[in-house]
Structures are given as structure tokens and as C-alpha cells.
Amino acid sequence: RRHDDGSEKSKASSEQDAWEEQQISKSRLQFGSKDREHAGDGYELVFDDAVEFVKSAAMAGTEPEDDVTDELADEIDAKVTLQKELQDERKTLPVYKFKEELLKAIAEHQIIVVVGETGSGKTTQIPQYLHEAGYTANGLKIACTQPRRVAAMSVAARVAQEMGVKLGHEVGYSIRFEDCTSEKTVVKYMTDGTLLREFLGEPDLASYGVVVVDEAHERTLTTDILLGLVKDVARFRPDLKLLISSATLNAEKFSDFFDMAPVFKIPGRRYKVDIHYTVAPEADYVDAAVATVLQLHVTQPPGDILLFLTGQEEIETVDEILRRRTRGLGSKIAELVICPIYANLPTELQAKIFEPAPPGARKVVLSTNIAETSLTIDGIGYVVDPGFCKVKSYSPRTGTESLLVRPISKASADQRAGRSGRTGPGKCFRLFTEHSYRKDMEDETVPEIQRSNLASVVLSLKALGINDLVNFDFMDPPASEALLKALEDLFALGALNCRGDLTKTGRRMAELPLDPMLAKAIVASERYGCSEELITIASMLSAGNAVFYRPRDRAPVADAARQRLNAGNAGDHIALLNVYTEWEQSGHSAQWCLDHFVQPRTMRRARDVREQLGALLERVEIERRSCAGDLDAIRKAITAGFFRNIAQRRRDGSYRTVKSWRTVFVHPSSGMARVEPPAGWVLYHELVETTKEYMRQVTELKPEWLLEIAPHYYHNNNLNKPEPKKAKAHGQTSSGPVVAEKPSLNLKDFFDV
Ligand code: CDP
Ligand code: MG
After folding, report:
1. Per-residue pLDDT, 345
2. pLDDT tens figures, 189-220
3. Lowest mean pLDDT: which of 30-44, 182-196, 199-213, 291-305?
4. Is residue 158 within 6 Å of ligand 1 at its C-beta?
5. Distance, CA of 558 to CA of 384 (rounded, Å)
6. How far is the CA of 267 from the centre of ligand 2 (A)?
7. Contact 400, 687 (CB under 8 A)
8. Contact (Cβ atoms closer than 8 angstroms) between residue 562 and residue 597
9. Whether the Cβ atoms of residue 398 and residue 661 lie closer than 8 Å to each other
10. Nearest to residue 149, comparing CAs of 88, 108, 112, 192?
11. Which of 592, 678, 574, 281 is nearest to 441 (CA)?
């Protein structure tokens, strides 16, 4: 159904590149004829430098006229006007009226819970107020954490603009693998995960004077862990101010957790929202959503539309359908400007959602949950809510984490509806029945900590010296079964010893901002002499799922290109390594990407990630070495991290996971999906559940490696063990290792559950 995805993408990405070029040239100023000569020598001033230049020239009493073109003067005028508008706009936000009162409350109390509707100015204004009030005068920074990368970046960009500074100077952001801050930075937006990592290097957060835990109502896994950690830090750092900010009125819980901290309520402005339900359940919410959007567009008075979808893929589909349909209608309808927004959307494109639609046109924003509370888009008059979102769920029994599309909670549905009533009365179209709202939906979303794999946070906590996890101050404690599973997993990876203490391997793993299994594979690469290759593979895996594209009209060429990179069916991990290596040898060429049907954006991101992983290797003292094409060395290092993700082929072509006897399949996007003869034993990076359970990023391995690399996890003494109540396994492949009954870790020794 979406095979032509690729062609759209390839076109989109070349358009994207052109657009980037344009933005870059726009942001730099060209100077008059005299200076243009210099420009040829790479002499280009960026805008802020130009303003500085004009200012200093004015101060020095000279006339800058000679050096300044009309164009420059106009741009400066425009900038001054924009600044004035921005400052006026700031004063209209609900929080503005409470500025003094809020600052007073902060001065008087160490910890405050701030509650206010989305869009009242909590995220963008409060850090600025604190900065203006002198909380950064002592050289300390203000941290403001966000659950989502996109929010951290876009909010920082906005605040930098409001403060009239360049992003990354006084105002910056820091997210995993991307640090846009400098020595000057005093207001720092960051993901909650980034602050959690900073704890490792600075357990008392000494460089911060204020920490704002923003969007706390989202209750992400890392937010919950942070809440426990900052509460503890606040006890021994009485000078540290702590703000917990939430968009929902259910703030008592935060106040209780922080020993009855005062709650500061910012009365919101919220207009009436008319809520419409469908009379019968919708069979296909994507179709229903498209139809609703188009119908609203042609029948309703001005006002932008916000449609909530579950993820990037779905957003891209709807984007494409809407484009096709509106193109078909041509000039019969007003223009519809389609703006997607999701976590992996490139930074440069994110700004687009905040731009007003041209006169006469209507904007439709296609968004994931991110627009529910983290981002505020002005001018939304209509919300279309299919009532679904992607949620993580985790089964400690099988150790599988899956991302599933599930109905949202009532609280989410109400938040979503509210997005239409910010600037005037709004309308919300729910693509579900009133009955299902009242009877089927949960009141609140279950906090993520109660439905996640905890291995990663347990490793971080252990690295922080927090050993007594049962008595850690959790707002809502995770299931003890999940905590146990995390400890078992970390033990099996060699990150913990049998007493549950962090090992040297574990300490190194904790330094790498990656899933513990991937971190272990990198640490293990030292032994196999292939750390260079492993950081490349890890970077490619972290850079996003969209490495290749496959335009329908050129599918055979694309497949051939891909097949070649998948040299000798060596597996997806090696293919990723090949892609990166060839791209690097091409001098990071965009043309190479085009020729090989590879997304240039993913490659650029992989390069950034790789650079940082390289620096981290040095920090954990792992020598950077290349194994020069010894593929088994690379595969063994990967196995050292992923030995639990193993599956064996069955006669019917499906695979059975060795760990939990689940029936799984090779994902159709994998280079291993069409390999002949098919691999008997495979290792996979992750399982994704759609229509079936699929293994993504698959590599063949030799079963004896499991005995060599993870003897504590696999043993060979009962080979040929038949599957329970099933036909005998595939003759040729049945003699392989089987999982040891239990890892030889006695949890009772150190963990009292
Ligand atoms: O955090 P809260 O939801 O209370 O509000 P905010 O994110 O501080 O947003 C305040 C205002 O800033 C809103 O009216 C947004 O439209 C605007 N804003 C923006 O224009 N661009 C951004 N990247 C972020 C906010
Ligand atoms: Mg906010």
C-alpha cells in the first residue's frame, strides 16, 4: 500500500536539501560589492555578527552606512520589529500576570509545583523570568527538562529568539548525541534523559542553580527517576531551586511526593470546546481521519486543524493521501498546508509548524502525542482525535518490550480536545463513540515506569551508587518483577556481579548513552579488536530506522543496490557497516546516497553520533581498533551484547526465539528476508509487533558462538530437546544450545523481594 513511499521520500529529500541550502544562504548576509569579494574567500558574516558590527560601529561614532547595504539595514529593521512583537507577545501569555508572584514564591520556597494549561507560557517564560531575576548571576545555570527531543529543541529555539540571542549561546539545548550549548549557556533545555546522564558526572548538579522538571504530568520513565533523584539532591543542596511543572490539574500527587511543596496555579485561558463523537466505531481510523480533515477544510470557517496520529509512518501516509486528494481537487478548494510533526522530524522542518498559513489557506498539523501538551501551536480551531497513541508495554516474563497502538486515556482525550480552544472557541471531532469514551477508556495513562524494561535505568542508578532499588523514592514504584528482571538482565550482560554490584564492564556500559545490550556489544568489541566497526554499527542503529528508501518505479535498481551493500548476505548489521564505510569513502557525498538509495539525513546523523561514541570510547579507555574485514569478530562482539535475542529457523519458514519460544519472522525490510538458503540461526536487534511479530536488523550467527560467548546463559548438555508439544525442530538445526534454566544468580542474596 505504501510502496511509492520511497519515491515521495527521494523527492522530498532532494527538495529538503535544496531547502536547507536556501535556509543557510538566507541566514547569512551578503554584503555590498566590496564585501562580496571577500565572501568568495569564505568571508561571510552571520546575521548576529552583522548586528553586532553595526552596533559597535554606531557606538564608536562612525557612520556604518558605507559598509552596510540597504538589504542589511532592512534586515536589521525587520529584526528590531520582530523583537518588539515577540516582547509584546510574551506579555499576553497567562503566566505573565503572575510573574512577580511566582518569583516571590520561588524565592521563599525551595520546591514549587507549577500547574497551568498548555500554552500558558510555563516552558518558554519561567526560565527567562528566573534568568532576568538574577538566578544565573552566580554563574549557575537553569536546567529545564523535557520528555521529548523535539520539544527541547524547538522550545530552546523559540526562547533564544525571544531573548534575541543565537541558539547555543545564552540559550541552548542538549539532547542525546546533540549538544547545542556553549560556555555562555545559562538557560539549558534538555531531555530528561540528558539530565539523568549528567548526574553520572555531577551527582550534586553543582553547575545548576535551578532545575525545572517540565511536563512532569507525562510521567515518562526518566522523568519519574529524575523526580526521585532531584528530591534527594534538594535535601543536601538547600540553595538549589526546584520547579516541577505540570499541565494537568492533578498536581497534588507531585506536591505530596515533594513533602507538601506549595502548588502555584496559573489560571489558564481556555475557550469552550464543542465535542463531537462518531455515532458508530470507525473501522479504519486513518481513513476516517483523512475524510474528517477534508470535510472540515471545505465546510468550516477559518481555523487550523490538528490531527493526532500514532507515529511517523502513519503521519507520512496521511500526509501523502492528503496531498494526493487535495491535488485532485485542484483549485476547487482553498489551499491546505500540510505540516507533519514527530520526534524524528529534522530540526529545520520543525519550525514550519509554527508558521501561520498564507492568507486564504488553512494549515493542518499532523502530529504524534507531542502536540498533546509538549508543543503549543497557535491558531488551532479544530482537533481531530482518532483516540489512539503508541504506547510502550513490557512483559518482564518474556522480557519483550513492544510498541503498540492503544486507545488513549480520558485525560489524554481531554488534553487533546483542549488544544482547539486556546485562541477562541474550538471544536473537537472524536473518531470514537461517546460510549467508548465513557465506558472503555482508562481515566489516566499508566506511568511508563510500570510498563517498561528497566535495565537501562537500573544501570544508571547503579552507576550513581544507588544500590537499594527497592527503597528508592519512586513516585509510583515499578513492579518488583520488572526490577528483578532488569537485575537479571544486567547480570547476564556482565554489568553486575553476583552480589549485584556494578562491574568494570557495567561501569563502562553506563557511560555509553545506549541500550545496555548495545553498550555491552561495544564494550565487548575491545576483546575482538573491532571497536571502530562497532561504534559505526551502533551509530547507524541509533540514527533512525530510515536508512534505505525504495521508490516504486525504480524498485529493482534500489534492491540491487541494497543487495550489493548486503555483501554475501552477511546480515543487516554488516550491511549498515558497509553503507557507512562506503559513504565515508565517498567523502560523505550526497550523490553517493542518491545513487545507493540511502537517506542522506540518516547518514549525517549517524556521523554525529559516531563522533560522540568515539569520544566516549576514549573516556572509558577502549582502544579504537579496526578488525579490517574480519566479519566474525564483528558478529561475535554483537553476540556478546545480544545473545538473548536469538532465534532458530523452523521448517515452515518462521523462527522461534530461543529465549521465550515465540514465533517470529524476519522483517520484510531486512536484507535477510530474501536470502537463500535462509539462515538457520539468527540474532536480532529488536522485535516489533505489527500484524506479526517481526525481528528487525537480523544477522546470521553460528550457534556454537553462544556457548563460547555466553556460557552462563546457554549450555549444551541437553541437545536435541524437542519443542514442547510441537513437531520436532528442523532436522539440521535442532542440535543447538538451549537456554540455561536460570542464570546462575541468586537474587535473594542481595535483593530482598
Ligand atoms: O509550557 P506551556 O505549555 O505553558 O507554554 P509554552 O510552551 O511556554 O508556550 C507559550 C507560547 O509560546 C505559546 O503561545 C506558543 O505558541 C509559543 N511558542 C512558539 O511560538 N514556538 C515554540 N517553539 C514554543 C512556544
Ligand atoms: Mg510546556
Report:
1. 76
2. 999 999 999 999 999 999 999 999 999 999 99
3. 30-44
4. yes
5. 37
6. 15
7. yes
8. yes
9. no
10. 192
11. 281
* b/e 615-651 (16+ beta carbons within 10 angstroms → b): ebbeebebeeeebeeebebbbbbbbbbbbbbbbbbbe
The SS3 of residue 94 is: helix
Q: Name, in order, each residue with C-beta under 8 angstroms of 519's C-beta and a sequence gap of 6 or more.
A: 508, 509, 510, 512, 641
Give the mean model confidence (pLDDT) for residues 129-148. Answer: 96
Nearest ligand by distance to the CA of 156: 1
670-694 pLDDT, tens digit each:
888 888 888 999 999 988 877 788 9
Strand partners, 394: 401
Protein residue with its CA nearest to atom 10 in ligand 1: 121
**Is there an atom of ligand 1 within 6 Å of 123 CB?**
yes
The single residue listed with the C-alpha cell 558574516 is: 45
Q: What is the CA radius of gyration of the chain?
A: 27
Cα–ligand 2 centroid distance for 246 (angstroms): 8
Query: 541-577 burial by CB neighbour count: b if 16+ within 10 A, else e?
Result: bbbbebbbbbbeebeeebbebbeebbeebbbbbbbbb
Q: d(Cα 219, Cα 658) in Å, to the nearest integer?
A: 34
Can you give the three-state secondary structure of 597-663, one letter per residue? CECHHHHHHHHHHHHHHHHHHHHCCCCCCCCCCCHHHHHHHHHHHHCCCEEEECCCCCEEECCCCCE
Residue whose cell numbers read 497567562: 94
Cα–chain-centroid distance for residue 583? 25
Helix, coil or strand: residue 288? helix
**Closest residue by Cα to residue 45 from 27, 23, 29, 58:** 29
The residue whose C-alpha atom lies closest to atom 6 belonging to ligand 1 is 121
The three-point CA angle 189-145-602 to 5° equals: 65
pTM over 0.90: no
Of 96, 125, 158, 347, best ligand 1 pocket probe by most atoms within 8 Å of the beta carbon = 158
| CA 342 – ligand 1 centroid, Å | 17
**pLDDT one-digit tens code per residue, 225-272:** 999 999 999 999 999 999 999 987 678 899 999 999 999 999 876 788
Task: Give the distance, in angstroms, between the CA of residue 372 and the centroid of all CA atoms in the same chain.
Answer: 16
Q: Quick check: 660 pLDDT over 60?
A: yes
Q: Is the dihedral of CA 310, 312, 313, 317 positive or negative?
A: positive
